[in-house]
Design brief:
CATH topology: Globin-like
Number of strands: 0
Subcellular location: Cytoplasm, Sarcoplasm
CATH class: Mainly Alpha
Domain Globin: 1-149
Subunit structure: Monomeric.
Number of domains: 1
Distance between the termini: 36 Å
Order of helices and strands: HHHHHHH
Strand content: under 5%
Pfam families: Globin
Protein name: Myoglobin
Length: 155
């Protein structure tokens, strides 16, 4: 029987294997994630002020959106590669997510929903891999939540 720790580590391994697809096309995946995020959850567009004047209908395929999406997914990739190591994750977050970017946990959760959808479509994740991605993202969000509490960010 697998312990909780072994299970989440196995899930991280599955996700990181799938993440190779994302690494090969950060801008494509990132653009798709941000475009869908803004379409499904328009309130999230305020997190990215440079897009406020771009009509939602013009986001798909926009190079600037793809470039920003690549930045978001590269940072997420770094967090995933830490495989739940709280010290590494704290260093990677470096309070910027909370204090500079103002990314609250609700927004992380919305990005997670959209990321899962895009990964299922683009990387053709099956149900097991989708489940692993969801569990890993929930694990990561719980670590981020703990960090936010430590630094006094009410995210």
């Amino acid at each position: 029987m697998m312990t909780d720790h072994n299970r989440i580590m196995a899930d991280y391994n599955v996700v990181l294997d799938c993440w190779k697809n994302v690494k090969a096309d950060y801008a494509g995946y990132g653009g798709k994630v941000l475009t869908r995020l803004f379409q499904k959850y328009p309130q999230t567009k305020k997190l990215f002020p440079k897009f406020k004047d771009i009509p939602t209908s013009d986001l798909e395929g926009n190079a600037v959106v793809g470039a920003q999406g690549a930045i978001v997914l590269k940072k997420l990739g770094e967090l995933l590669e830490a495989k739940g190591d709280r010290t590494k994750i704290r260093e990677l977050l470096d309070t910027s997510q909370a204090n500079t970017h103002k990314i609250d946990l609700g927004s992380f959760k919305l990005i997670t929903k959209v990321l899962v959808e895009v990964m299922v479509e683009k990387a053709r994740l099956d149900a097991a891999k989708q489940g692993a991605l969801e569990r890993v993202m929930n694990h990561l969000i719980s670590i981020i939540d703990g960090r936010y509490e430590e630094i006094g960010f009410n995210g």
